[in-house]
Backbone:
């Protein structure tokens, strides 16, 4: 017979009897106290926002990239409008669009805009014969982070970056890297290029930049999974940052807000090497044209990855809110309109910048989004 | 006593008897029903994956079987490596506790090993990426430099140490307590007569262990290993956090590219999966279910063949 180690149940029970009564009293006291506290908090909040008449529930799902921004937007919006409940499920862009099209949610967050096939179909949450539009609400620069002993500054162009991540360049003192970094002392260490092992909009945008800027080297079409079977995979943004931090001779890409103390490479734009800034990321989105052949009120952006303007940082991720132009339920439409307007407003963008490290939309783009939202019914 | 006698003196059934026997029957059939429900759920959900078109799979896979094969390999490979490290250590620890250590030390050590079993796997995962991987990386680099000619240690070495060997070490630490605990109990049950007889015949303590304790405990060691294997096969979080995965069959232990395991692959891809992608992941879960079932059945067969020595008699 196999006897498993068992805790002494009897002793636990005895102990429970001995300490049980004070514990119960303590728990009860804590509950009573905390319920008083929450009552107070509730009443003051209602007093503050007495003028808000909005009420209802918004359900949304989509991109996990804007997940932390959504959390801060939701808490700010719900504080101002205590009768509104908003749920955002960061289930991924594809799932978010699918649920929205099927009518399961009131709006979707998505790292890519609706494609022609999706626009050809019907949207269950929208009024019959009306379509949904893409509104940019979240911009995040993607930083190329590295950890190489003795190297603090690193300049890279798209070709070299693509070669590093496809495995064509394997050591840090490769002539291609040395040519771009005349002043740096590059060691002969092997390069470990770290990418995301889970599906990610960050990977897709990183790949999209290289696909457009270095088409000879990066031949795979951009998609959520990392397309090449080289380099090292790590789970999530924190996994990539962790792998780059604790490894030797590592390089990776991650949301810029998470780069921390790691070295961040400058990317060649035109003739200069540009370090990411929130302004440069917002500028490239601002300077990019809208996707052609779509409705006038659709703000899908065709990111100008090949920009030569040195005030632009082309390695960015733009995430959209997909909303109906006319909702089947007008009351729900008004509610969504309020919330999405808040997301794209100056206050909302400042909130996302503070909590999620996003790059705020330019004032110009903010007003464009606001103008479209004006027409939402 | 014959069957007839037993029927003859059948006592009057009291309510307590009826309630208790019904409760045990319900409990017994419930476990079967749950197992059947899980299997049925996996099977029904998997059907779309088996007939999914090639473009539903990520990467360059043409059908489900080519997609799941490297994952199944990675699952078996990492679990095998983990057991390779864990079983000898577990047997040694168990023997030390049961036959070598002074009684007081043995008890404390036993508790300590059991405590290791209570550590959640996510903690092992954090330990793996935070402590173990950076620690073993320089060692891996040397291994590749000196023994790179040996196929398993071929380069290029991973710069972060997050390889399948690191995963196997983490898994080995995780399965160690369960194997040790069971082996210890088995070794303690070796009939004292056997042990004393071999000692009386002039055997040293080591000879006594090889002649009396180990043969007696063999079936127990196997079933302990199989329980450990079950945990290693299904371990999700620690693998997902530590491993740098790649969708190929890869034997090398020290490179950045490693075959992923089924459970870790599900954990990595499920959050963003939708449509038939969910079915594909569930179908890989079904494969894992079948693998575990086969492993357990093999263990049963081995144990039954050596019934004479099992601890049960």
Residues:
């Amino acid at each position: 017979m196999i006897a498993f180690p068992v805790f002494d149940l009897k002793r636990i029970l005895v102990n429970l009897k001995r300490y049980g009564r004070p514990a119960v009293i303590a728990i009860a006291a804590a509950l009573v106290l905390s319920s008083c506290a929450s009552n107070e908090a509730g009443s003051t909040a209602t007093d503050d926002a007495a003028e808000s008449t909005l009420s209802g529930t918004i359900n949304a799902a989509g991109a996990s990239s804007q997940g932390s921004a959504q959390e801060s937007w939701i808490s700010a919006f719900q504080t101002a409008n205590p009768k509104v409940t908003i749920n955002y499920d960061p289930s991924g862009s594809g799932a978010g669009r699918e649920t929205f099209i099927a009518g399961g949610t009131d709006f979707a967050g998505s790292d890519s805009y609706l494609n022609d096939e999706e626009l050809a179909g019907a949207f269950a949450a929208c009024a019959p014969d009306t379509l949904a539009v893409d509104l940019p609400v979240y911009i995040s620069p993607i930083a190329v982070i590295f950890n190489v002993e003795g190297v603090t500054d690193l300049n890279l162009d798209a070709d070299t970056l693509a070669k590093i991540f496809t495995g064509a360049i394997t050591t840090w003192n490769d002539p291609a890297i040395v040519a771009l970094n005349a002043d740096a002392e590059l060691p002969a260490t092997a390069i470990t290029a770290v990418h995301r092992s889970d599906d990610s909009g960050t990977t897709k945008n990183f790949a999209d930049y290289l696909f457009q800027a270095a088409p000879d080297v990066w031949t795979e079409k951009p998609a959520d999974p990392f397309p090449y079977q080289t380099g090292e995979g790590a789970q999530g943004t924190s996994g990539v940052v962790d792998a780059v931090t604790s490894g030797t001779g590592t390089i990776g890409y991650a949301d810029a807000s998470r780069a921390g103390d790691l070295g961040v490479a400058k990317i060649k734009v035109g003739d200069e090497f540009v370090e990411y800034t929130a302004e440069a990321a917002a500028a490239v989105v601002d300077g990019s044209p809208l996707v052609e052949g779509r409705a006038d009120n659709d703000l899908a952006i065709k990111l100008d990855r090949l920009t030569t303007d040195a005030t632009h940082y082309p390695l960015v991720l733009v995430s959209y809110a997909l909303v109906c132009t006319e909702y089947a339920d007008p009351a729900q439409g008004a509610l969504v309109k309020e919330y999405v307007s808040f997301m794209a407003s100056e206050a909302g963008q400042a909130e996302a910048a503070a909590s999620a490290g996003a790059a705020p939309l330019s004032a110009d783009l903010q007003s464009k989004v606001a103008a479209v939202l004006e027409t939402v019914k | 006593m014959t069957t007839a006698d037993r029927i003859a003196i059948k006592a009057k059934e009291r309510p307590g008897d009826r309630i208790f026997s019904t409760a045990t029957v319900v409990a017994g059939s419930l476990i079967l029903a749950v197992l059947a429900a899980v299997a049925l759920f996996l099977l029904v959900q998997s059907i779309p994956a088996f007939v999914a078109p090639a473009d539903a799979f990520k990467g360059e896979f043409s059908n489900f079987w080519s997609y799941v094969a490297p994952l199944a390999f990675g699952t078996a490979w990492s679990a095998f490596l983990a057991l390779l490290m864990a079983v000898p250590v577990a047997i040694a620890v168990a023997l030390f506790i049961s036959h070598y250590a002074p009684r007081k030390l043995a008890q404390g050590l036993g508790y300590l090993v059991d405590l290791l079993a209570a550590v959640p796997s996510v903690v092992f995962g954090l330990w793996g990426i935070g402590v173990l991987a950076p620690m073993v990386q320089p060692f891996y680099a040397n291994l590749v430099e000196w023994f790179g000619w040996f196929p398993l240690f071929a380069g290029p070495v991973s710069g972060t140490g997050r390889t399948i060997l690191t995963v196997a070490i983490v898994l080995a630490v995780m399965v160690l307590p369960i194997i040790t605990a069971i082996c210890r109990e088995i070794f303690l049950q070796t009939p004292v007569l056997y042990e004393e007889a071999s000692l009386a015949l002039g055997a040293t303590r080591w000879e006594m262990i090889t002649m009396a304790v180990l043969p007696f405990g063999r079936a127990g060691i196997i079933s302990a290993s199989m329980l450990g294997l079950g945990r290693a096969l299904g371990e999700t979080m620690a693998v997902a956090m530590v491993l740098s995965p790649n969708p190929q069959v890869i034997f090398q232990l020290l490179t950045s590219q490693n075959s992923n395991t089924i459970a870790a692959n599900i954990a990595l891809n499920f959050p963003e999966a939708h449509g038939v992608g969910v079915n594909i992941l569930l179908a890989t879960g079904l494969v894992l279910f079948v693998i575990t079932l086969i492993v357990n059945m093999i263990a049963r067969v081995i144990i039954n063949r050596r019934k004479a020595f099992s601890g049960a008699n």
